[in-house]
Amino acid sequence: MNMRKKIVAGNWKMNMNLQEGVALAEELNEALKAKSVKCDVVVGTPFIHLASVADAVDASRIGVAAQNCADKVSGAYTGEVSAAMVASTGAKYVILGHSERRAYYHETPEMLKEKVLLALANGLTPIFCIGEVLDERESGKHFEVVQSQIEASLFGLSADDFGRIVLAYEPVWAIGTGKTASAAQAQEMHAFIRRTLTGKYGAEVADRTSILYGGSCNASNAQELFSNPDVDGGLIGGASLGVDKFMPIIEAF
Ligand code: 13P
């Protein structure tokens, strides 16, 4: 059994109004009080929920994550939310590089590099997402795509800073499709990612990096996915929107 941190993180995406979000977080907090769980639990909420959700839960039970932050420190960037603002809400994590942000909001590797640096500078733990689209997998390019996503945005970091990153492998073809990667596909990619990290930062850093799987992960497949040696937890979309669906995933560890 490795000593890496096991993490189950929910990504609420653009769902639930403030009252619904706080109610879900409170319900999850209560459910966790009654159990002793073997992983860290995180909820990734829309920006406007962050402060209220951070207030509503026990920080020892649930970490709060933003789903994005700006690539600038502060200033005239209408509509943006900085890493410092995220940190000031009590959030401890920020999801960065999600495929939806790369695809729909044109986030580039260079922008993500800045976001990672600002997140780290403000004491946030980035949950950095990587993953190939279906065409890339079908043409056998999935390993090189994932490697280049990691290299382009993260390999400028010192080993110390890299040690504060959590990775999430999310094959785009598995997100919201009900078509999860098989346990073997997940393990194969996670092991590849860890070898890539070993090559750059050495075995100690690589062995300590938590690599989560995301993409149609749910109560019925979580245990099989999490039982792989290089799968250290999950980043959960749809199945994080109800305690009845999210709790069994947490308990899969
Ligand atoms: P689903 O679990 O809904 O497939 O979403 C995964 C995801 O994108 C989490 O960030």
Number of strands: 8
- pLDDT < 50 stretches: none
Order of helices and strands: EHEHEHEHHEHHHEHHEHEH
**Overall pLDDT score:** 97
Tell me which ligands are bound: 1,3-dihydroxyacetonephosphate
Strand line-up of the largest beta sheet: 1-2-3-4-5-6-7-8
Strand content: 5-15%
- CATH hierarchy, class: Alpha Beta
Provide the gyration radius in Å.
Answer: 17 Å
CATH architecture identity: Alpha-Beta Barrel
Helix and strand composition category: alpha/beta
What is the rounded distance between the termini?
12 Å
Account of the 3D structure:
- The protein has a single domain (7-242), classed as TIM Barrel, CATH 3.20.20.70.
- 43% of the residues lie in helices and 14% in strands.
- The chain is built from 12 helices and 8 strands.
- The chain has an 8-stranded parallel β-barrel with strand order 1-2-3-4-5-6-7-8, surrounded by 5 helices.
- It starts with 6 loop residues before the first strand and ends with a helix.
- It binds 1,3-dihydroxyacetonephosphate.
- 1,3-dihydroxyacetonephosphate (13P) binds at residues 11, 98, 170, 175-176, 214-217, 235-239.
Keywords:
single chain; 253 residues; alpha/beta; TIM Barrel; eight-stranded parallel beta barrel; 12 helices; 43% helix; globular; binds 1,3-dihydroxyacetonephosphate
Strand and helix map with partners:
Elements lengths: L6 E5 L6 H16 L6 E5 L5 H7 L6 E4 L16 H6 L4 E4 L2 H6 L4 H13 L3 E6 L3 H5 L3 H13 L4 H4 L3 E4 L13 H19 L1 H6 L2 E4 L7 H5 L6 E4 L6 H8 L3
Parallel strand pairs: 1-2, 1-8, 2-3, 3-4, 4-5, 5-6, 6-7, 7-8
Bound molecules: 1,3-dihydroxyacetonephosphate (13P).
